[in-house]
Design brief:
88% helix
């Protein structure tokens, strides 16, 4: 592998790490929001669905 290719691979790896960290922060904030919402709230389902989606995205990021 040439130096340029290694640099690009390193940058992709760093970007993936940063994306994973951001996804985890979003999950943490959504879970915190859920803990303050009553389950009967119309927003609860939307926030829970958003948490599930970002969790799925984080799984995809880890796989790549």
């Amino acid at each position: 592998m040439r130096l340029d290719e290694r640099d690009m691979e390193q940058e992709r790896s760093e970007a993936g790490d940063e994306a994973g960290a951001l996804a985890q922060e979003i999950i943490n904030r959504l879970e915190r929001a859920l803990s303050h919402l009553p389950e009967e709230s119309p927003a609860y389902g939307d926030v829970a669905a958003a948490a599930d989606l970002i969790d799925a995205l984080q799984t995809v990021l880890r796989a790549n």
